[in-house]
Amino acid sequence: xxxxxxxxxxxxxxxxxxxxxxxxxxxxxxxxxxxxxxxxxxxxxxxxxxxxxxxxxxxxxxxxxxxxxxxxxxxxxxxxxxxxxxxxxxxxxxxxxxxxxxxxxxxxxxxxxxxxxxxxxxxxxxxxxxxxxxxxxxxxxxxxxxxxxxxxxxxxxxxxx
Length: 161
Prior knowledge:
The protein is an alpha+beta fold. It has helices spanning 2-18, 79-82, 154-157, and strands spanning 35-43, 48-59, 67-71, 89-95, 100-107, 116-125, 129-136, 139-150. It has one domain: Lipocalin (Beta Barrel), CATH 2.40.128. The protein is 16% helix and 44% strand.
C-alpha cells in the first residue's frame, strides 16, 4: 500500500511540474524595424563621429502597415540639452519584405522644429543592426550615417520568452 501511495504521489508531481506552459513572444508587424535602438551618428563624407551614442525608437503607427515612426525622444529643446541627436520625430515608408525604409521628404513632427528630413538606404541587417543615411533641411550639405544596434529589454536579456 505504501508503494502505491508513493507511486501515485510521483505521478501527480510529474504531471503538475511537466505541464508548465510555454509562452511565445509576439511581435508587431513592424518587427524587426520597430524597436529601441542605441545609435551613433557619423558624417558620411569622412565617417567622423558626429554624435552619440543616443537612444532612438522606431515604432508603427496606429493605422496602415506601410510606414513607421523614427523618434529620438526630442523634447523641442536643443539637441545638446535634450541628450538626443537632432530633436526629430518623423515617418518613413517601410518595406517589410526586405526590412528597408526610406523617406524622400518627411516633415519633423517636433513642435518648433518643422524641418524636412530625407532618409535613404535605411535597412535592418540581421535583426539587431540598423543603418540609414539622413539629410536634414537645416543642414542640407551634410549626409549623416545613423547606425547602431537593438537595445534588449529585460525579457530578452533574461530569455523570458
